Amino acid sequence: CSSDLGEEITVALLRENSLFGVLSLLTGHRSDRFYHAIAFTRVEMITAPANSVLRAIEEDASVGLLLLQGLSSRILQTETMIETLTHRDMSSRLVSFLMVLCRDFGVASEKGITIDLRLSHQAIAEAIGSTRVTITRLLGDLKDSGLLTIERKKITVFDPIALAKRFRSEEHTSELQSPMYLVCRLLLEKK
Question: Per residue in 103-117, pLDDT tens?
């Protein structure tokens, strides 16, 4: 999404079977915001004309329910990104973003949780409103602390719980009770 100042803002990271670009379908008005998608993995995209979707909803209420579920998921993803961007210091913002990635794209293994995306330092920086240089330095600090490793642009967080505890800030003391933290904990327990 582009802000009023023309800056790009990451509003969500989408997974398989995610919806985007459907608000005008429901409101009947075109958005004055410019949205675009960038794929970090191979993607198959399906489009449908608004009148076909509306007709399908009228004919089968379960289609409307699926659409509502997809929109609800998008709202939660957007709220999570907003929460991530509220962190004032970049290290807390990065850690919060890594926790989101662990939750949404994490694959548990014997090493920890591997984020199943190939992300450049630049892509991470753009997602959280930082610079590539800062992200490179902060990721280096996390590697040196033994909290993660990066191989072929894939990040493995050895212990998301330790990562969250170490970088919990005073203004975000409830993070250890957040759904994101709890999901990471469950992923680790399933190993």
Answer: 888 999 889 999 988
Distance CA 75, CA 81 (A): 10
Pairing of strands 106-108, 148-151: unpaired
Q: CA torsion sign, 27 to 33 to 36 to 37?
A: negative
Mean pLDDT, residues 175-186: 53
pLDDT one-digit tens code per residue, 3-40? 455 556 666 666 777 776 666 666 666 665 666 677 77
Q: How many residues does this entry show for the chain? A: 191
Residue 181 backbone phi and psi in degrees, to 5: -65, -45
Cα distances (angstroms) measured from residue 131 to each of 94, 100, 137: 11, 19, 10
What pTM did the predictor assign?
A: 0.69
Q: How far, in Å, are 7, 79, 110, 125, 172 from residue 25 at the CA level?
A: 26, 21, 44, 32, 36
What is the Cα–Cα distance from 137 to 26, expressed in whole angstroms?
43
- Other C-beta atoms lying within 10 Å of the C-beta of residue 138: 20
Of 13-17, 18-22, 67-71, 174-178, which gets the smallest average pLDDT?
Answer: 174-178
Distance of alpha carbon 11 from alpha carbon 82, whole angstroms: 8
Q: Which of 160, 11, 179 is nearest to 85 (CA)?
A: 11
86 Cα distance to chain centroid:
14
